[in-house]
User: Fold this.
Amino acid sequence: MGCFCDDLCTFFDDCCVDADKSFQKKINRSLHDYINCTYDCKVSARKFYAVVDCPRDYGSQYIADLCSVTNTTDLFLQIPAMGRESGLMYKNVFCAQCHAEESDLWQPRVKCVDHKPIEMNETFTMTDILANGNCFLQLLPPPNASDFRPCFEDIISTCPDVEMEEQCSHTSGYKILWDSIHFRYFLTSILAVA
Assistant:
């Protein structure tokens, strides 16, 4: 899957050739400066795009630090948020806050490998449950949230030689193939030759 026909495809510049671009969300293009391809196994087995930093001139360094924190054990800072207006994924609620977007948190769920009961008391926290080794944290999107945008970093978008490059520049059909090592981005004229 290399192109999209959704309301974010012009923002991510990944519209399919036949995408209807008349219903696109109006999102400030400057947000591109704060989006990275990221990975979190609690969210997905695939990499995805998320807003991971605050604007450099944001007024609160405290909020900016909470947005960009890495390797934290604080579960609240690990929960992504989905922008209500933009539909963009934010690393956490503080990243959404510094971009002035109302957001909904992803829903944390604990899954345990074995079905043995866990002895708990009123002081038990989610961290205590996850520390037993048989349980892990899973994050589910908020109700009515749009899908997060997967990212493919290993796409090869140039042709390997001059003759193929010439063929590439004279066609408009696109294909993306997976060859177990990289995503390969070929134009249909090259596939027709093969």
The CA atoms of residues 71 and 141 lie 22 Å apart. The chain is about 20% helix and 20% strand.
